[in-house]
Specification:
The complex is a heterodimer of chains A (about 325) and B (about 260). Chain A is about 80% helix and about 0% strand. Chain A contains 13 helices and no strands. Chain B is elongated and about 75 Å long. Classes of the chains: A mainly alpha (about 325), B mainly alpha (about 260). At the A-B interface, helix 1, helix 6, helix 7, helix 8 and helix 10 of A face helix 3, helix 4, helix 7, helix 8 and helix 9 of B.
């Protein structure tokens, strides 16, 4: 048990090493001089040399990588050229928008997908099932950012009920802030909601075929009790796994939705940094988000092993 | 049934793309200041954009971008992923361990993240978005191939081939690889619509197709500024994406049911 967790955490460390190496290789090793990216191609040789020295680009690659990772591990992701602030400070500030957006989308997704998936499974091959499956087919076909545009078009432009976007910060109060994240979160969660509803449906269908469900029914248990006590409980293992992996996907997807709704989160920060050639910010955000996704995936993996002892010995 | 609907939508998509190569109602790049941001009319069935360009022609031409990016991105992910999975599954040991951790790491880079990084280092282009989307597909193809190789590498026919003097290359290429193809084909059909969605998202952010080339995602990026003036502008390109992805998904589901009757739908 303990050995399983230790082995998994060790594997995670290796994976995180590769994540950092990939970011480093793209930024430093691939053709393209970061100093020139920052200064522009017309820069004179002196300032290029100065920036190269400031960034440590004149040292051997392995030394550069070691220093960069060493600093990153201590929370130092470099300094933004555009804002002249530590990249980690910028990330933490913007995370107060991105993280709640991601979690709200995840909450909405789970709250809608699991009941709907269970409902579809209990109506297998009847109208309720077909309707739910059609809904989820549409959900995986509609791009989140288009869903966002349609929501704006309907609720803001047509009905005039809500603002088309923007975020005034948590200082304005919890509920107003949460309300401005609601529409973006709904659009963000739509795709993953459809995926999770399908996963739930097939997981519950699978369990409903098991012998112990037949036994429970034969004992004369009420169908509701069979469903929630026996079926859903066991179906939860694959559902939790999928939902966990989706968390990372939602985090990445928030980058697009922030643009649709003009939310000052990590995505907008990075896109602005690309136009401003603020390479340290892009590098820092990508390293941060990729590491988060990898860690969430590893956590799901470990949780899966803990929930289902069969996996550990496989 | 789903297979037939999916097939019809997909054929319409391919036909639209093919026709748009030789014929579009108007030149998709032709501007007309007088006819800007019109709603649907007889002359412009889907209306016009902020430069007065015909949206029907642009949506038709956008199908080519979608198909092109989808095919190339899936091909990149499949080729590299299969290579990884092949070596991992066949040789096993530390090589397998290292490759799989690398694949775990790559899983931390959804298309959007790689595209952001590549666009910052180079310049946002269509090829960068194809590579970014391809990289995002790598892990699933690598895992599938690895699983198949683990399953087949000690089978009798493989052992027999080796006993007859076949080298590693021949065993991998001629004996095991052909057996791994069916799940890979199914995965490719599942990945194709996902690639189209990803391309639309990247172009929407300005990280994919660049103006004035028609791409559905890019059209939506431009349409957002004119939501109040011409709402149709934001509806048709998005509808084209949704319909295409729906058709391809249905086709993929149908294909999976045909190839693998064991899964219950």
């Amino acid at each position: 048990m303990q050995r399983y967790v230790v082995r998994r955490v060790g594997a995670l460390a290796v994976t995180l090493f590769f994540v950092s190496l990939l970011v480093f290789v793209v930024v430093r090793v691939l053709p393209g001089d970061p100093a020139l990216i920052i200064l522009g191609l017309e820069a004179n040789a002196d300032s290029v040399a100065r920036v190269r020295q400031e960034l440590g680009l004149d040292r051997p690659m392995a030394v550069q990588y070691g220093q960069w990772v060493g600093r990153a591990l201590r929370g130092d992701l470099g300094r933004s050229i555009q804002y002249d602030l530590p990249v980690s400070t910028l990330i933490l500030t913007r995370l107060t928008v991105t993280l709640p957006l991601t979690l709200l989308a995840a909450g909405l997704m789970i709250a809608a997908a699991i009941p709907l998936g269970v409902f579809a499974a209990t109506r297998h091959r009847r109208w309720g099932d077909y309707l739910t499956m059609t809904l989820s087919q549409l959900g995986v076909a509609v791009p989140g950012f288009w869903a966002g545009l349609l929501l704006i078009l309907f609720f803001s432009v047509h009905l005039g009920w809500v603002r088309a976007g923007g975020f005034d910060g948590w200082g304005q109060g919890f509920w107003p802030a949460l309300r401005s994240l609601l529409m973006p979160a709904a659009a963000l969660g739509l795709f993953q909601f459809a995926v999770l509803a399908r996963t739930t449906r097939s997981a519950v269908l699978e369990v409903l075929r098991e012998e112990y469900v037949k036994t429970a029914r034969a004992k004369g248990l009420a169908e509701r009790r069979v469903l929630f006590r026996h079926a859903l409980r066991n179906a939860l293992i694959p559902i939790v796994t999928v939902a966990g992996v989706q968390l990372g996907q939602l985090l990445a997807g928030s980058i697009i939705l922030e643009s649709v709704f003009y939310l000052p989160g990590l995505g907008r920060l990075t896109l602005a940094a690309i136009s401003a050639r603020d390479l340290p910010v892009v590098q820092g955000v990508v390293l941060f988000v990729a590491s988060m996704i990898v860690m969430v995936n590893a956590a799901v993996d470990i949780l899966y092993g803990l929930l289902d002892p069969r996996i550990r010995y496989g | 049934m789903t297979f037939v609907i999916g097939l019809v939508i997909t054929l319409v998509l391919i036909a639209t793309a093919a026709v748009s190569l030789v014929y579009t109602p108007r030149d998709p790049l032709e501007m007309s200041i007088a006819g800007r941001l019109q709603g649907p009319t007889l002359a412009h069935p889907l209306g016009t954009d902020q430069f007065g360009r015909d949206l029907l022609s642009r949506v038709m031409r956008g199908a080519i971008t979608a198909i092109l990016v989808g095919v190339i991105a899936v091909a990149i992910g499949m080729l590299v992923g299969v290579a990884f999975g092949m070596l991992s599954g066949y040789f096993g040991g530390w090589l397998d361990e290292v490759f799989m951790r690398l694949v775990d790491a790559i899983q931390g880079f959804p298309a959007i993240l790689s595209a952001l990084l590549l666009a910052a280092v180079f310049r946002p282009t269509l090829s960068i978005s194809m590579i970014a989307i391809g990289v995002a597909f790598l892990p699933v193809f690598a895992r599938l191939t690895r699983a198949s190789f683990l399953e087949f590498r000690d089978r009798d026919f493989v052992v027999a081939a080796r006993a007859l003097g076949a080298g590693d290359g021949a065993v991998i290429g001629r004996h095991i690889l052909p057996n791994t193809l069916p799940p890979l084909i199914v995965q490719a059909t599942i990945s194709f619509p996902v690639a189209i969605l990803a391309e639309a998202g990247l172009s929407y952010l300005g990280l994919g197709t660049q103006p004035p080339n028609p791409s559905w995602g890019l059209m939506l990026r431009e349409a957002q500024a004119f939501l109040t003036l011409n709402p149709w502008y934001a509806i048709f390109p998005g509808g084209a994406i949704a319909l295409t992805v729906l058709g391809l998904n249905l086709l993929g589901d149908g294909l999976r049911d045909l190839l693998d009757p064991k899964t219950v739908a």
